[in-house]
Amino acid sequence: MNTPDKLHHYLIKLPNGKTPGDVVGERHEFVLLFDCAKSNPNGDPDTGNMPRVQPDSLKGLVTDVCLKRKIRNFFTLYCPHDGEARAWRDENGQKEDRNSYDIFIREGAVLQKLFDPDTKTTDALAIEKVAKDIFVNELGQKIEAWTAKEAKKGKTKKGKAKAAEAVSADGSEGQAAQVEESAEAEEVSPAKQAKQRAFQLAVLRTFFDLRAFGGVLSTEGPLKGSFYGQIRGPLQFTFSESLDKVLPLDATITRCAVASVDEEEKQAVAESGDSRTMGRKFAIDYGLYRCHIHFSPAFAAKTGFTYYDLDNFLFALVHMFDDDHAAGRHLRLVGLVDFEHQSALGNAPAHKLFELVKVDGVTKDKDWKTVFSSSESEFPRSLADYAGDAPNGDLHVKDGKVLPGKNGEGVAVIQANRIVWEFPAKQSDRKPA
Asked: Rounded distance, CA 384 to CA 424, Å?
């Protein structure tokens, strides 16, 4: 995998002695804040695509896979190695060279065709070519071993003895055959394991979303049933939950045309030739959502996730909503904070870092209940209904508490990077003019 010798966006700071192509060795925690106005942030198919809502608190929900989908969609349009956004195929229908930033989980894709050489697709044959190169040049295997027949299953001496005992015990050949079958042991050659590892490394170096989020490749293809087909990515998302309860909106809409002749005939009978049909559109009035993202350097080492990947991932977080607007979906990033630890295990518990990012509604009491100050409603209406603060710079740990600045020895074990922050400070925190 060829990695440029410099970052593109510098949303992270390279540790001393590290290059963009090095695997990320420090733990990270991220806080992501985004809002949604007059639209549906994440519809639930089980409820007719209505916005997801917690039934007890009436707070809105957005699933982790929803945000991952937006990141994948972003990288289908944007290639870090090009100066401008590109689509999957150029004007001649030829696939562009995305150099390790292909996306595996694509819309309408048959996953087996993307990496299984038996399907004879262009993508799969390209993966096999990369895997063979890894097999020989990195794993030290001879290319002849690539096509060698797999070792056949054979009975162990212990298994044969058990089978004989079963026959002598009750004379049941069927039972003896069962014991023999259970005693069969598959001989897995080092070359076969190296081949599976080569395929795993090939797909990881080709598809960004597998390096970042992981995936299951052990169902079909060259990694079927293999340990190497179970890939766990270093980036794990939580569900996003709105800070306050949301107000669902249900609008009935009218279409002035029908889809088929049969529908036209039904409408003619029912409504005397009127071709209009009715539909529904669901949304929320406003919601501010918060998501936590965890990054594990241990899994980054297994998938080969580099500082270059991390820089581009943060760039995708910042811009993933820009090209995702639709009539019923308008989301906007309003906050992104990166906590970078000095060590792989981390220098403070994640929940203590998340507590440092404080965002609250600007409220007041009216008629024995709490309402938002701008609208005097129990539901938020815009970002102006919130204020908050987040750390930015050095942090240290003392007596189990995370404190700003460096410790007494001049050491900061955590670095907070406030990448995006659009919230005004709380009234009590604002400095007088």
From this structure: 8
